Amino acid sequence: MSAAPARQPTRDDHRTGIGWDSHRLVEGRPLILGGVTIVSPLGLDGHSDADVLCHAITDALLGAAGLGDIGDHFPDTDSAYKDADSVKLLQAVIGRVADRGWEIVNVDSTIVAEKPKLGKAKAQIQQRLADVLGLDPFDVGVKASTGERLGFIGRGEGIAALAVAQLRGRNP
Ligand code: MG
Q1: 7 C-alpha vs ligand 1 centroid, how far in Å?
Q2: Cα 161 to averaged position of ligand 1 atoms, centre (Å)
Q3: How far apart are CA 156 and CA 171, in angstroms?
Q4: Distances in Å between the alpha carbon of 163 and those of 21, 41, 60, 100, 124?
């Protein structure tokens, strides 16, 4: 875990963080993206609920705050996080980031999936994430891309997500 900061961040402090995650698509699991269950014959496999988008956003927030990564906070060797609701993990990290004196300015994200098509789900995911993050949907980007049939994503073997988050110090 990272060392405690020497000072509290102020309004003049801005930080950007990046997050990336991918999970394998399998039968017999729900597909959950950004806390929204998507109709799909395949779902993402993982120790938690494998919500790849929440994991990428969680890492972006942690990175911006200099607080390590999701594995530092929620080890996948810990049975407490078996089938964990990733929205709850994200909420815990939002709390830890706030405790360090940061507020979230905006989050942007891209889901990379060959199937299913996410055009109709994007607005729903955006609203759900805005609610979780305590942001206006104006400040939450949810984009969808495909693998153009290239690589593991293009073959439909998995889904990836990328995110960036910007933080600003809360103190005057
Ligand atoms: Mg993950």
Answers
A1: 31
A2: 9
A3: 46
A4: 9, 25, 6, 21, 17
What single letter denotes the amino acid at residue 101? G
| pLDDT of res. 72 | 95
Contacts of 79 (CB under 8 A, 6+ apart): none
The residue whose two tokens read 């891309």 is 145
In angstroms, the CA 100 to CA 103 distance is: 9
C-alpha 71 – ligand 1 centre gap (Å): 9
Provide the token pair at 139.
């400040």
Measured in Å, residue 171 CA sits from the centre of ligand 1 at: 32
Give pLDDT, residue 78.
84
C-alpha distances (whole Å) from 59 to each of 119, 120, 138, 156 are: 24, 26, 21, 24
pTM: 0.95
Give me 116's structure tokens.
């299913």
